[in-house]
Amino acid sequence: MSLEPCICGDWGTSRLRLSLCAGERVLETREGPGIGALRQPAAEALRPLIASWRSSHGRLPLFLCGMAGSRNGWRETSYLPCPADLGALREAAVRFDSEGTPVTIAPGLSCRSRLGSPEVLRGEETQMAGALALRPGLGTGSHLLCLPGTHTKWACLEDGVVRDFMTALTGELFALLRDASTLTRAARAPAEGEPAAPDASDDGEAGFESGLAAAASLASAHLLHFLFAARSAQLLDGRSREWALGYLSGLLVGSDVRDALPLFTVPAEVVLIGEPELNERYARALQRFGLTPSRLDGERCALAGLRSLERR
């Protein structure tokens, strides 16, 4: 890995995360609008975010993954079809110059899932490559990776090659139900002078455990029926909005895990790559199904994967 400073960025649909790096050290981080929120060309949106870094450090190479390489992003990069060797990301990356800045954008991956559906991803391939850099043991043997998020990915990794993957709409569905449905809006408002409600975090934890338990006991055909319990439990059992939110999260995460596992040959360990809070929620679901999860920080993996795009 080069010790020369560079900028690494995960440019998603809703957020841009930039890091000024030197070797393995992150010197500074900044955030900006996601690709979906841009009202100007990507280069113009990026310019003020990196101007002071360029002023201090000169011509900094920029490495990007995620939606920066999408059709609506900065410069479209092709999808590598699976089976895809994660070591080939460097050769398949798109490279160009923008206002004196050498830019590298990682490619995405595509496949047909084990359910026969077309699948694509952008950004997660770089996290997986970073996971291999941080845990070299993942480069040999068969591993099941789970990358929780808005669109949770389950990937089969064999000897450093992504054989195939599948997507669950877990995070996006939770956000839609939380923000645009009636499921969490049925709790009774406290009457004037009524004692304060118990700690909301405790209520949310109890709801999450109830959701996990429901998911573990269900056939997938009953998910739609048990979703409604988030609302009816507020009306009949006096549950709070925080409990309902926790229940929805547990039910969706648990259902995702329950339905994904039978499609893969599952090793004893499932590797989680994501934000710590999401990793923990998926770890609890996996433990309920008798599996041992390990956790890798998604942002740290993304940075390691982006640095692996450097030409050697």
Number of strands: 15
Please state the overall shape, judged from the principal axes of the Cα atoms.
Answer: globular
Strand content: 25-35%
Instruction: Please give the largest β-sheet.
Output: 6 strands, mixed
Please report the distance between the alpha carbons of the first and last residues: 9 Å
Oligomer: single chain
Neighbour order of strands in the largest sheet: 3-2-1-4-8-7
Query: Spans of 5+ residues with little confidence (pLDDT < 50)?
Result: none
Structural class: alpha/beta
Average the pLDDT over all residues and give the rounded result. Answer: 92
Helix content: 25-40%
Q: What is the string of SSEs from the N terminus onward?
A: EEEHEEEHEEEEHEEEHHHHHEHEH
Q: What value does the Rg take, in angstroms?
A: 21 Å
Number of distinct helices:
10
What does this 3D model show about the protein?
By secondary structure, the protein is an alpha/beta fold. The mean pLDDT is 92. The chain is built from 10 helices and 15 strands. The longest helix is centred in the last third of the chain and has 20 residues, at 241-260. Helix 4 (170-180) packs antiparallel against helix 8 (241-260) and helix 7 packs antiparallel against helix 8 (241-260). Strand 2 (15-22) and strand 3 form a beta hairpin. The protein is 37% helix and 28% strand. The strands form 3 sheets. A 6-stranded mixed sheet has the order 3-2-1-4-8-7, with helices on both faces. A 6-stranded mixed sheet has the order 6-13-12-11-14-15. A 3-stranded mixed sheet has the order 5-9-10, with no helix packed on it.
